[in-house]
Amino acid sequence: MPGRGPGRPAGARPVAPVVLALRRLPAPRLTGLGAGLFAAAAMLVIGFLDRLILDGSPIVFGLLFLPVSALTALWVRTADLVTAPIGVPIAFAVGVVPISGGTGGLGGQAMAVVTALAVHAGWLYGGTLVAGLITSVRKVRDMGRRQQRAAAGSGPGAGSRPGPAGRTAPATGEKAGGRPSTSGRRPVA
User: Fold this and answer.
1) What pTM does this model have?
2) Contact in structure between 113 and 99 (CB atoms under 8 Å)
3) Between residues 123 and 103, the one the model is more confident about
């Protein structure tokens, strides 16, 4: 067929080269705790490198926070999607410690961190928004896939199994008439 590449089904849209490149990247699935630790460790390393190389540039730190937020949201497991928008601001706070420039002991350092968080709240909100949008899109896509699987599994005769003498008996967990039983046990006939 014209316009059809090898191994591509008929009617399939061509895939953009950027999408193909992104599909080749590693896609680890981190737990909620793992995603939070990844983000915190990455931001702490970025904070130290920023202070060492660029004398604590908040713009560079903020710009690098955005891809860390995106990667955290992309790499967290589907079951733990809600943790990415929660862990990312915590990671920002951890990473801002080296570039905050506090002096005078623990109290001075704490005040510098609070001030840095207030001054750079735009980056903080932006990264959190990136993580929230990515996890929302992933959740909607996951719900759509589940709905498609459920629709594909509920074809004609999917909820019943043949019983004795060729009659159709309700599947486990269903009442006669196709409604689910409340107890989760098979009704006694």
Assistant:
1) 0.68
2) no
3) 123
Neighbours of 47 (CB within 10 A): 22
The percentage of the chain sitting over the pLDDT mark of 90, rounded to a whole number, equals 56
Show Cβ contacts of residue 142 under 8 Å, excluding neighbours closer than 6 positions: 78
**Neighbouring C-beta atoms of residue 9, cutoff 10 Å:** 6
Q: Give me the residue label for tokens 């709905």.
A: 147
pLDDT of residue 172: 53
Residue count of the chain: 189
pLDDT at 15: 83
The dihedrals phi and psi of 77, each to the nearest 5 degrees, come to: -65, 155
- 8 A C-beta contact, residue 44 and residue 98: yes
Partnered with residue 174 across adjacent β-strands are 180
Q: How far is 135 from 174, CA to CA, in rounded Å?
A: 35
Amino acid sitting at position 24: R
- Paired tokens of 6: 């090898």
The pLDDT value given to residue 14: 85
Give first-to-last CA distance, the chain, whole Å: 57
Average pLDDT over residues 152-176: 55
**Residue 50 CA to its chain's centroid (Å):** 27
What's the whole-number mean pLDDT along residues 148-170? 63
- CA nearest 127: which of 71, 49, 45? 71
